[in-house]
Amino acid sequence: MRSEKEMFDLILGIAESDNRIRAVYMNGSRTNPNVPEDIFQDYDIVYVVTETKSFREDKTWIDRFGERLYMQYPEDNVCYPSDVENCYGWLIQFTDGNRLDLHVETISHMNNNILTDKLCVVLLDKDNILPPIPKATDEDYWVKKPNKRKFQCTCNEFWWCLNNVAKGLWRKEIPYVMDMINFNIRPMLIRLLEWKAGIDTDFSVSVGKSGKYLYRWLSEDIWDRFLKTYSSSKIEDIWNSVFIMCELFDDMAKDLSIIFDYEYDTQEANNSFQFLKDVKILPEDADEIY
Asked: Of the candidates 41, 43, 35, 19, which has an alpha carbon nearest to the alpha carbon of residue 123?
């Protein structure tokens, strides 16, 4: 596996030798001082160029970066139309284990977008075309204190969507149930756990995508309970994990409502949880719920 120095020497060497490339900057996890370093960190690199057409048309251009295992052209994805004239990319997994997420963008595109990302570090600027870049920070991703309305809507979303989990489990519709849990229920729980971490850090941290760094700030007990909300695809395992999720959510919501001094609808929570329990014991051949 090529070292970090070898990769940066390659990235900058190519940029310095190519007259079309006028500047280079990096963003992503490698510029974030709060992200642990490991062997899977990508090199998120942007070449600021005079035009993108010649890069797009030359299919061999990226061969100089090394032997590829597989790759993606994200701007060629028909599901996500892009302005390829101003920005185009190659996401590359190399055979040596390194990964490079490389984009070329025009100077005008850079001027319109670079300052919106606070995790930028300038690596090369041949013509001094890049604006002054503040020190990289993940401040834009810090947990933010919710207002009362957001707190209450989050709680309502969690308890209301349990209705769909309950009927899906009774019908044994596992794909539907998993989607409802992971796309509707779980994000609400993660949001509460983020706020708990925010309170304990004076809202000065990022918990990462999907709350992946929450373990740093949650107690061992809470983190363990959260992990138990993930289940296998067996019906009984899912029921058990959902019950754990409900209990954890209710505990966190009650604590946060006191800290924030926001009203928490405990009657709604109790009724929703009870409905879930009632459906759990409903016979398979039932012709009415109550």
From this structure: 43
**Which ranges constitute the DSSP H helices of the chain?**
4-17, 53-57, 107-113, 148-171, 174-180, 186-200, 220-227, 235-260, 266-280
Cβ partners under 8 Å of residue 256, min gap 6: 151, 192, 195, 196, 199, 262, 264
- Give the span between the Cα atoms of 94 and 43, in whole angstroms: 12
Count CB atoms within 10 A of the CB of residue 223: 15
Which residues does residue 103 pair with via DSSP β-bridges, in sequence order? Answer: 46, 89
Name which of 165, 169, 198 is nearest 183 in CA terms: 165
87 forms beta bridges with 105
CB 92, CB 65: distance < 8 Å: yes
Q: Which of 231, 148, 157, 219 is nearest to 188 (CA)?
A: 157
Q: How far apart are CA 184 and CA 161, in angstroms?
A: 7
Predicted pLDDT at 8: 97
Enumerate residues 6+ apart whose C-beta is below 8 A from 128: none
Does the predicted TM-score (pTM) go above 0.90? no
Q: Residues 151-163: pLDDT tens digits?
A: 999 999 999 999 9
Q: What are phi and psi of 240, to 5 degrees?
A: -60, -40
Dist. CA 121–CA 140, nearest whole Å: 16
